[in-house]
Write the structure tokens for this entry.
Amino acid sequence: MKSALNKELEEITQRIMDGLEKGSDEASKTLHLTDVRQAKKLLDLMDKASTKSERDTGKRALVQELVLTTWMQRLYFIIRSFIMGLISAGISAIFILYFGSINVTLGLVLGIGGFVLSLIISRLFDAQIVKLTTTIVSFLNGHKSLRNFMISHF
């Protein structure tokens, strides 16, 4: 029974490590710990591992995957916020061009309406935003200084 657990732990750990090292789109689709059950299963298998080196390898892979997932989420938020800001700015520019100026009431309506509309539009294109984020993270894996700049300043 221990050898089957060790084999399963080694398989999951190796899959995560390979995906992290490759940084490919195909690997990143299957590796992110979006399912809580997958993370719990990996932690349970690490606790049942027979040797310290197997536990350390599993823990290192899990931490690396969590860091990558955190970077993905932060970058996703940055990109989505940027897109929402552009949409809201475009709506505001159209209103200002049409009316010439805006007052406080129109500004409030415009702000709330622009936010809601940009939120709806960004949710409609969520799959494309996720794909763009994955592509950017793959690119940033090869450019460490640019990645560190983006993570620390945004």
